[in-house]
UniProtKB/TrEMBL annotation:
It is an enzyme of class 4 (lyase). This is Tryptophan synthase alpha chain. Belongs to the TrpA family. The alpha subunit is responsible for the aldol cleavage of indoleglycerol phosphate to indole and glyceraldehyde 3-phosphate. It comes from Deinococcus aetherius. NCBIfam families: trpA. Tetramer of two alpha and two beta chains. Keywords: Amino-acid biosynthesis, Aromatic amino acid biosynthesis, Lyase, Tryptophan biosynthesis.
Length: 266
């Protein structure tokens, strides 16, 4: 599959470039669409966007195999509240009307096919989505989705993990047009105790031999200290479960976001 540069990719790359010029790794918070409710979601994300270089919005899904208990529970709550794939993209469209920050949507393949790939891409384009993160789509098995995304101006991002072979890293790096998402640990999403780095430095060294896009790291980043560990070696830092936990526990999401954003300075 040949990687195609799109308008969404250009906006994503520009956000990473701005952060680099300022001596930072780009900060990308994640939030499940419709969490804690469709009515409260916009205010939560507005708070995150005050500190973000990019935003990742997750489409709630009933079988999120790559997500840990925190994101799974958030998806269940959002689905119970009526947040569908179409509702997610309506929420993103509302955000786009108020913010110019690049927005990437994380989705498993089934929600795309449930809507229909071409219709899904049209809805993403109309909503102002810049890119897609596709955690369960191997790029060598993609027959349609990446090409349709490019046709609609959307970048695509695939994932590598510490267990990825050099051949797999090369394949994924070649297919990414937005950024390359490096998973810091083997397993599912969620804040963890201890270092966030794990096998990240060696994995990133291999990824950068092939990647023509920025490399961001997620899974296990929970605070300023772990964000700083990752920021020293990566182009971007993705944080999700820590914010979902903060919302659930009634903590100040803005204070946490500001602290983690500061931790992204090198």
């Amino acid at each position: 599959m040949t990687a195609t540069l799109t308008r969404g990719a250009e906006r994503i790359h520009a956000a990473f470039d701005r952060a680099k010029e300022e001596g930072r790794a780009a900060f990308m918070p994640f939030m499940t669409a419709g969490y804690p409710s469709a009515e409260e979601f916009p205010a939560v994300v507005d708070t995150l966007l005050a500190h973000a270089d990019l935003l990742e919005v997750g489409i709630p899904y009933s079988d999120p195999l790559g997500d840990g208990p925190t994101v799974q529970r958030a998806s269940e709550q959002a689905l119970a509240g009526g947040t569908s794939t179409r509702r997610t993209l309506a929420l993103v469209k509302d955000l786009r009307e108020r913010h110019d920050t690049p927005i990437v949507v994380m989705t498993y393949v089934n929600p795309i096919y449930a809507v229909g790939p071409r219709e899904f891409m049209r809805l993403c384009k109309d909503a102002g989505v810049d890119g897609l993160i596709l955690p369960d789509l191997p790029p060598d098995q993609d027959l349609e989705i990446a090409d349709l995304a490019a046709e609609h101006g959307l970048a695509v991002t695939f994932l590598i993990a510490p267990t990825s072979t050099p051949g797999r890293v090369r394949l994924v790096a070649d297919a990414c047009t937005g950024f390359l998402y490096a998973v810091s640990v083997t397993g599912v999403t969620g804040a963890r105790e201890g270092s966030a780095l794990g096998e990240v430095p060696a994995m990133l060294a291999l990824a950068r031999e092939h990647a023509r896009v920025p490399v961001a790291v997620g899974f296990g980043v929970k605070d300023a200290a772990t964000a700083h560990q990752v920021a020293r070696v990566a182009d971007g830092v993705v944080v999700g479960s820590a914010f979902i936990n903060a919302v659930r526990e009634g903590q100040d999401v803005g204070t946490l976001a500001a602290s983690i954003a500061e931790g992204c300075r090198r």
